[in-house]
Write a structure and sequence with these properties.
Structural class: alpha+beta
Number of strands: 10
Order of helices and strands: EHHHEEEEEEEEHE
Strand content: 15-25%
Radius of gyration: 16 Å
Low-confidence stretches: none
Helix content: 10-25%
Shape: globular
Oligomer: single chain
Distance between the termini: 28 Å
Length: 212
């Protein structure tokens, strides 16, 4: 795991999330827009707040360009060779008395390449039970919270380390992005599969994108 700090004035992701959701106090968004059930498989990416974010993102090329520039300027220098990257970030909402991801898992169990590298980008403070928990080594089971705050980017091994949510026992909603990158060399020598959740192809042009 590696934590990288970035300049939120240059990469003002929170401003866009507030705009897309039309709500300035993201930590308290559950007070006005509570989820009506505990998220389960099939609902952890299609509640009304998720839809508002993705609709806003789709209509805002400025945000997409900001995300692409962020990956190019902040993530690419972390690697020696060429990488490919998740075309759009995944949006997470972890409300009090709820979860953000439906079950503990390793990403490779859902057909992700085991060499993928995960990046976690909190938009609000992520701590204790309002963030996800992960193990330090594969199958070690020593789960601890992945803690961070706005301005942090956390690099870690989600493909092979089990991770998931506990019920959020704090009084604040956690909002975050996550995305994945993969070595272009490894991609070129592997056979991409389709995601189990949405049957999306792990190929350039569908799930992944490139700067070339």
């Amino acid at each position: 795991m590696k934590k990288i700090n970035y300049n939120t004035s240059n990469y003002n992701f929170r401003d866009y999330v507030e705009k897309f959701l039309d709500f300035p106090s993201l930590e308290n968004i559950h007070t006005d827009f509570p989820f009506d059930e505990v998220l389960v498989y099939g609902t952890d990416q299609n509640r009304h707040l998720h839809k508002k974010f993705y609709q806003g993102m789709d209509a805002c090329p400025e945000f997409v360009n900001l995300y692409r520039n962020f990956v190019k300027e902040t993530v690419v220098p972390l690697f020696d060779g060429e990488i490919i990257f998740q075309k759009f970030p995944t949006f997470r909402v972890h409300q009090p008395n709820n979860i953000a991801v439906f079950a503990f898992h390793k990403d490779k169990e859902y057909n992700h390449n085991e060499n993928e590298i995960n990046f976690y980008l909190p938009i609000t403070k992520a701590t204790d039970t309002n963030t996800f928990w992960f193990e330090s080594e594969e199958d070690k089971g020593d789960f601890a919270p992945m803690e961070g705050e706005y301005g942090d980017l956390i690099q870690w091994n989600g493909a092979n380390l089990s991770h998931g949510n506990k019920l959020n026992e704090t009084n604040q909603t956690r909002i975050s992005f996550d995305f994945r990158v993969l070595s272009k060399k490894i991609y070129d020598t592997s056979t991409p599969k389709n995601s189990k959740s949405k049957n999306k192809s792990f190929t350039i042009g569908d799930y992944y994108d490139t700067f070339k």
